[in-house]
Amino acid sequence: MFFFSAKEHGYNLLSFGPVGRHVKHSSYNGLSVLALHTYPITTLIHGFKFQHSLTSGKVLATWFVGKQQHLAQHTPHVSHTTAQLLLPVPLSPWRLATRHYNQAAVLAKSIGSALNIPICTNWAIRQGISAQHHLGKAQRLQHAKQVFSLTPQCIDKLVASNPDLKRIAIVDDVITTGVTVNALASLLRARYPQLSILVWAMTFTPPPKSSLLAAK
Question: What structural domains does the chain harbor?
Answer without folding.
Answer: 6-215 (3.40.50)
